Amino acid sequence: MQTSPEFRRDRARLPAAERRRQILEMTTRLIAERGFWGLSMQDVADGCGLTVPGMLHHVGSKDSLLVAVLEYRDEEDARSLAGKLGLPVHQLWAEEPRRVTLPEVCSALVRRNAEQPEIVRLFAVLEAESLAPGHPAHGYFKARQRRTLDQFAALAEGDVPAPRELAIQVVALMDGLQIQWLREPETIDLVTAWDAAAARLFRP
């Protein structure tokens, strides 16, 4: 089908940064629906009004696009989480001086995730798929898990006798509740379920 002159002008006007953001948002939505293995580069390009070569000019390969999507979402979520906690983003995980506690961070995280089920679904799908060593996000999720456990353990340091063990339990509980919520959102309220579980997990 021939592209209309109006569409060509619109495409030409988009700055590179805005076009890249559009591609990442479209890819996010499609992966959340289909998983990485079901992702078609043609569908991403069509959704952005581009040809596949034109889209790849902005993002490189399919594998690099996936990692770019994950990094982009991490940056967006870090900014949102810092805002909910009333902190500048660069102080979110600062060890000295400690600005927030682990229960506060977890509560803000859960409330943030409850507002964006499509993003939580994206990460749940990709995290499961990336257990296969050949998956392009295998290394990303392995490093992300280690970083999250390190950050949570650091926040719990001095408050509990085994901060690393607590961090592992927190991540397991949070991930498990999110899976149940995604599967039955009409019967499970993520925030309510987390608050009830956190009252037991973080009890003095």
Automatic annotation (TrEMBL):
SUPFAM superfamilies: Homeodomain-like (SSF46689), Tetracyclin repressor-like, C-terminal domain (SSF48498)
MF terms in GO: DNA-binding transcription factor activity; transcription cis-regulatory region binding
Keyword DNA-binding applies: yes
Residue intervals of the HTH tetR-type domain: 17-77
Residue ranges for the DNA-binding region feature of this UniProt entry: 40-59
Pfam families listed in its UniProt record: TetR_N (PF00440)
Record keywords: DNA-binding, Transcription, Transcription regulation
Protein name: AcrR family transcriptional regulator
Organism of derivation: Actinoplanes campanulatus
